[in-house]
Design goal:
Structural class: alpha/beta
Number of domains: 3
Order of helices and strands: HEHEHHHHEHEHEHEHHEHHHEEH
Number of strands: 9
Shape: globular
Mean pLDDT: 94
CATH topology of the largest domain: Rossmann fold
Radius of gyration: 23 Å
Number of helices: 15
Distance between the termini: 34 Å
CATH architecture of the largest domain: 3-Layer(aba) Sandwich
CATH class of the largest domain: Alpha Beta
CATH superfamily of the largest domain: P-loop containing nucleotide triphosphate hydrolases
Bound molecules: adenosine-5'-triphosphate, magnesium ion
Oligomer: single chain
Low-confidence stretches: none
Strand content: 5-15%
């Protein structure tokens, strides 16, 4: 494990600056209140949500399940993932079957002691023949399952739905409507929705025209303050017997803006370079090299995000102009086109408006990268 991990599941002691938030959402969800956490990429949504689920399970005895909607394309696929995730808290072996056919999963369920232990009543009988159901029936049953288990076992259920912005692509408005219709009748079950593309997520839950309007409390992940970062970074290096020159941490935080993923990447690079040179003191020179190295590692992500904008006219050009603090109006592009591109960039959580005609990047290293390389 790296000194500064950048894994999806972060060790509890590496999740800094969010304790009050984690406690608050844990309490809400075990009390059956659904919550939605929107936010730009790589700021720690999944890490925080996974920690919340762990606490719901270990400290409050809740049944928990998590489903990632990213790159799923069919409602039946989503249903299958939800069913296996929910049953996995009874027997985790079922997770190894996620890629199998519905018939194979049904056969496994029938042959497992789950039937004797948990699923021995008529309301679970459909699990024995999932392959004979229509897609719609399967989705309907999957949506009902969490509450059925909650009621039987008299425990709260908390379901994490990650990358929820993709729900529209999976089943359109009709899937969202089915979710609402079924889930609002589930007194013991809470849903924890997370998603990048903040404004799309906010629209799903905040606009009266959308099926999930006011279905969940919308809560924003707090930023991690500079002081909390500094304490964490210094403590980590100290434990390795490495000393940081004054000003190094401030310099790192100035460059990353405290963006969680980028800050962890730069800190890991500091550590790696100190080890490569076999030194126990990190100075401004090593800090500079670490920023270069981390930028190199981030380049593939930044480039793939840029490619994602190829389909939106002028977005890429406007992004580069914003990064250079130039006027957002490239020659020959009219105001309507500029507005459309900027709205898209904001909806996707790349930039944020801070004043009339003024925007900041959520990820300062992305801005620096664009400024220096595009
Ligand atoms: N509270 C935190 N303290 C320190 N580092 C953090 C924290 N939260 C996240 N990170 C860092 O950011 C990384 C990315 O976190 P995570 O995958 O949870 O973000 P995300 O918002 O779900 O990203 P994505 O938009 O790609 O789904 C973590 O692996 C970790 O390195
Ligand atoms: Mg995530």
């Amino acid at each position: 494990m790296s000194l500064f991990p950048t894994t999806k599941i972060l060790p509890t002691e590496d999740i800094i600056g969010r304790e009050a938030f984690i406690r608050d959402v844990t309490r809400r969800t075990v009390e059956h209140q659904s919550v939605m956490i929107p936010g730009p990429r790589r700021i720690g949504k999944t890490a925080v949500a996974t920690e919340i689920l762990r606490r719901c399970r270990e400290e409050h005895g809740a049944l928990t399940a998590s489903v990632d909607l990213f790159l799923q394309s069919m409602p039946e696929e989503f249903a299958k993932k939800l069913i296996t995730a929910v049953l996995a808290n009874q027997d985790s072996r079922i997770l190894s079957l996620v890629q199998e056919s519905l018939a194979a999963i049904s056969r496994w369920i029938q042959g497992s002691e789950l039937v004797v232990r948990v699923l021995n009543s008529v309301e679970f009988r459909w699990l024995y023949h999932m392959d004979r159901m229509t897609g719609e029936e399967l989705v309907e049953h999957a949506l009902v399952l969490p509450q059925t288990l909650a009621a039987r076992q008299q425990r709260p259920v908390v379901i994490l739905l990650d990358e929820f912005q993709d729900a529209m692509a999976i089943g359109g408005k009709s899937l969202l409507k089915r979710m609402r219709a079924v889930w609002q009748r589930q007194p013991d079950t809470a849903y924890l929705f997370i998603g990048s593309q903040g404004s799309l997520m906010q629209a799903l839950f905040g606009q009266a025209t959308h099926a999930l309007y006011r279905f969940a409390d919308v809560l924003h992940l707090p930023d991690i303050s500079g002081d909390i970062w500094a304490q964490y970074i210094e403590r980590k290096f100290e434990a390795q017997g490495v000393v940081l020159d004054p000003g190094v941490v401030a310099e790192v935080l100035r460059e990353t803006g405290g963006h969680p993923y980028d800050t962890m990447k730069v800190c890991q690079a500091l550590y790696d370079i100190a080890r490569d040179f076999n030194v126990s003191r990190i100075d401004a020179n090593i800090a500079w090299m670490a920023l270069e190295r981390a930028t190199g590692e981030l380049e593939a992500i930044f480039q793939s995000e840029l490619r994602g904008w190829d389909g939106t006219p002028h977005a890429r050009r406007i992004l580069v102009r914003l990064a250079r603090n130039e006027s957002v109006y490239p020659p020959g592009v009219n105001a309507g086109q500029v507005k459309k591109a900027i709205d898209g960039l904001m909806a996707n959580g790349v930039i944020q408006r801070v004043g009339h005609g003024q925007y900041v990047f959520h990820e300062p290293m992305f801005q620096t990268y664009l400024r220096d390389n595009e």
